[in-house]
């Protein structure tokens, strides 16, 4: 199994917390789409004999593209790659782009999964984050989407300054009331060189409170699990049969190709990434050159990545797989480093798998970094 990620680097406006690569100018949209199709052609040899199971349009804001533009990109994938008979084709979308007419058009396209960036159902939160949509559009778009799509995911953000636990519970309950089968939820983080960081430094917005974010994370788990959602990855909750196939492949270390400026790729041994500049990307692709840097992962790198991704998921870190893929010394090291966290009831071992307890989930990335192996080949 493999997947193709297509990065659409355009947004109507910049969210205050975002540090992804995008542009608010659509002037080069046609050239960019041509370049994306050309890159798909240039890289067709990378997946020879491999079936593409997932196609994921991320961004940026892919819902800014027309149905015809999305269809053209999908057709290009089918032209140059072997695609599964029933691929998961996801479009990330913003509520202000999802009019009933647009949702109806999308439902008639090959796209069969929508991931909608709601973030909050409350006006104050949306204004603080500088989202392009309002609270009314947030509700309306889900009402329309669930009428035409079965597989719908929505994003919610917790830990927002001024977001009380009561209002956070209300956010979750509103989401649940629409019957969506998948929810992705993230703590608001203050990334360097973002508008949010600047506003906090100037004292115009309160800083993020980590303790409150942790409380809201546990409230989220409690509420969603009570409604039959499985917490299958640190930030992702799905009903049975509705886990994101695209994202699950990332966490399980499967190969994927990233198309577009700033997009990352992984083939099992090498990680590569495209230049984060639309103009440089387009010019390079037009010359038939991939604007890409590549890093070959050492055994230690692969072990560290496996520990990091495994601890984030319900599948955990297989001790047997560590021994088979990296060597017994890595397994012994992992068991030794895990002991303090097991004693603190942050980690546990079940069926030869190392897993994070409920208490440890919010801290899983930090725990994983303490289990990393340094400078060992």
Give keywords.
377 residues, alpha/beta, nine-stranded mixed beta sheet, three-stranded antiparallel beta sheet
Fold and architecture overview:
By secondary structure, the chain is an alpha/beta fold. It has 14 helices and 15 strands. The strands form 3 sheets. Strands 7-8-6-5-4-3-2-1-9 form a 9-stranded mixed β-sheet, sandwiched between helices. α6 (165-177) runs parallel beside α8 and α12 (319-326) runs antiparallel to α13. The longest helix has 16 residues, at 210-225. The chain is globular, with a radius of gyration of 21 Å. The two termini are 28 Å apart. The model has no long low-confidence stretch (mean pLDDT 92).
Number of strands: 15
* Beta-strand percentage range: 15-25%
- The CA-CA distance between the termini, in Å, is 28 Å
Unreliable runs, pLDDT <50, ≥5 residues?
A: none
**Shape call:** globular
Overall pLDDT metric: 92
Across the major sheet, the strand order is: 7-8-6-5-4-3-2-1-9
- Order of SSEs: EHEHEHEHHEHEHHEEHEEEHEHEHHEEH
What structural class do helix, strand and pairing data support? Answer: alpha/beta
Evaluate the radius of gyration.
Answer: 21 Å
Helicity level? 40-55%
* Major sheet details: 9 strands, mixed
Number of helices, counting only DSSP H or I runs of 4 residues or more? 14
């Amino acid at each position: 199994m493999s997947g193709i990620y297509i990065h659409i680097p355009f947004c109507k406006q910049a969210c205050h917390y975002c540090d992804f690569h995008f542009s608010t100018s659509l002037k080069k949209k046609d050239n960019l789409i041509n370049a994306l199709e050309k890159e798909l052609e240039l890289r067709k040899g990378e997946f020879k004999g491999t079936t593409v199971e997932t196609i994921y349009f991320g961004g940026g804001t892919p819902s800014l593209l027309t149905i015809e533009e999305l269809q053209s990109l999908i057709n290009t994938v089918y032209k140059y790659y072997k695609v599964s008979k029933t691929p998961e084709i996801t479009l990330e979308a913003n509520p202000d782009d999802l009019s009933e007419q647009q949702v109806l058009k999308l439902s008639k396209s090959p796209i069969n999964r929508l991931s909608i960036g709601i973030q909050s159902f409350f006006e104050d939160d949306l204004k603080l984050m500088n989202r392009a949509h309002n609270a009314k559009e947030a509700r309306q778009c889900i009402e329309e989407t669930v009428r035409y799509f079965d597989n719908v995911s929505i994003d919610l953000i917790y830990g927002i300054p001024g977001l009380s636990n009561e209002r956070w519970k209300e956010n979750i309950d509103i989401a649940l009331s629409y019957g969506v089968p998948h929810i992705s939820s993230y703590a608001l983080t203050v990334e360097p060189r973002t508008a949010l960081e600047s506003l906090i430094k100037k004292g115009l917005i309160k800083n993020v409170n980590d303790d409150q974010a942790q409380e809201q994370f546990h409230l989220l788990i409690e509420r969603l699990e009570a409604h039959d959602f499985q917490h299958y990855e640190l930030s992702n909750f799905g009903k049975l049969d509705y886990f994101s196939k695209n994202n699950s492949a990332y966490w399980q270390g499967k190969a994927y190709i990233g198309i577009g400026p700033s997009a990352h790729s992984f083939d099992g041994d090498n990680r590569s990434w495209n230049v984060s500049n639309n103009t440089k990307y387009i010019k390079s692709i037009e010359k038939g050159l991939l604007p890409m840097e590549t890093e070959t992962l050492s055994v230690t790198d692969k072990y560290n990545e496996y520990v990091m991704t495994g601890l984030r998921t319900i599948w955990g870190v297989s001790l047997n797989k560590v021994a088979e893929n990296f060597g017994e010394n890595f397994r012994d090291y992992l068991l030794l480093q895990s002991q303090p966290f097991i004693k603190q009831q942050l980690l546990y071992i079940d069926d030869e798998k190392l897993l994070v307890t409920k208490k440890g989930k919010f801290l899983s990335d930090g725990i994983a970094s303490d289990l990393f192996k340094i400078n060992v080949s």
